[in-house]
Amino acid sequence: MSRRRIAAVTAALVLAGSAPVLLPAATASAAPAAACSSYPGWVAGKWYNAGDVVRYTDGRAYVAEHANPGYDPVISTWYWEPYACDNGPGTPVGKFIVTEAQFNQMFPNRNGFYSYSGLVAALSAYPGFTTTGSETVKKQEAAAFLANVHHETGGLVHIVEQNTANYPHYCDWGRPFGCPAGQAAYYGRGPVQLSWNYNYKAAGDALGIDLLNNPWLVQNDSAVAWKTALWYWNTQTGPGSMTAHSAMVNQAGFGHTIRAINGWVECDGKNPAQVQSRVTKYQQFTQLLGTTPGGNLYC
Predict the structure, then answer these.
(1) Which pLDDT band holds residue 62 (cuts at 50, 70, 90)?
(2) Who has the most CB within 10 Å: 83, 162, 179, 222?
């Protein structure tokens, strides 16, 4: 896993909500979601973790975007979001071009924290993600994102950075907002191993979450963790010339996603083995999704 810790923030931030990580290849639309009736009924006052799906009294399904002590899904919309389900009353939101079965095949040893439902709940923060362009482009972007987070987390196994000696290094006291959570509080967390106080500040501002004062949300709330990864993917160029999202949507190639995420450490011949690891996983994931990887795979 790289320890670049994510690059200085670019000026343009996309605000969350402004529309913040198998079977043989098949399209997502070919795999129906579970029936709404298959989910347990919501119970007021019962503790729910991020990613839990319940059936509300109106027959619709809702996914917990944030852990909560049984708040009403219709009233507490910050904690709950509608969840797509078939064969009963449902909503069209919450669709992802990668099915849950495919996701499980990609990450057979993943930590339960990195739930598929947590990822689906986070998609609303950046609605253009894996929904822009042709079916091929959508699948390529999904494969590229998941290949990179696979590399960053050892297959969605690690939630926090493993080298604790690095923890005190991610506080830039030169920033006007400082490090209110403590000098050693801004270590790598989540699917892209978000780190540095300024990145927690910027991601939190974009997503409407106070991550500067509470960076631990990224390791305790699955939807928040996924949203930070989507924030970086969709809005940050890192050492590259474009965001990873733009690279895939505009067909610039997978290599540009590597450069945006960890170009300082891996690209231009600095660490070819790490680059190859990402490329190999991307090729595997595109094959699983029934598409081609395209060109310009290396950085």
Answers:
(1) confident
(2) 222
Please, which pLDDT band fits residue 35 given cuts at 50, 70 and 90? low
How far apart are alpha carbons 286 and 279 in whole angstroms? Answer: 11
Enter the tokens of residue 37.
Answer: 């009736």
Closest of 90, 82, 113, 104 to residue 33, by C-alpha: 90
User: To the nearest whole number, what is the mean pLDDT of the chain?
Assistant: 84
CA distance 258 to 240: 9
Element (H, E) at 231: helix 222-235
Domains, the chain, in order of start with CATH, read: 1-27+97-299 (1.10.530.10)
Contact 2, 266 (CB under 8 A): yes
Catalytic residue set? 152
Cα separation, 183 vs 169, in Å, equals 8
DSSP states of 14-59: PPTT-----PSS--GGGSPPPBGGGSPBP-TT--B-TT-EEE-TTS
Query: What separation in angstroms does the CA of 237 have from each of 71, 134, 140, 246?
Result: 37, 23, 19, 9
Cross-strand bridge partners of residue 189: 160, 194
Residue with tokens 């290949």: 147
Average pLDDT over every residue of 205-234: 94
Say which residue, 21 or 48, is predicted with more confidence.
48
Give the count of alpha carbons within 13 A of 299, CB side only. Answer: 30
Phi, psi (degrees; rounded to nearest 5) at 267: -80, 170
- Return d(Cα 100, Cα 13) in angstroms, integer: 30
| Structural contact between residues 220 and 205, judged by C-beta atoms closer than 8 angstroms | no
- pLDDT beyond 90 at 277: yes
What is the pLDDT, as a whole number, of residue 79?
A: 85
Joined together, the tokens standing for residue 137 give 């482009």
Do residues 224 and 203 touch, judged by C-beta distance below 8 A?
A: no
Q: Is the pLDDT of residue 92 over 70?
A: no
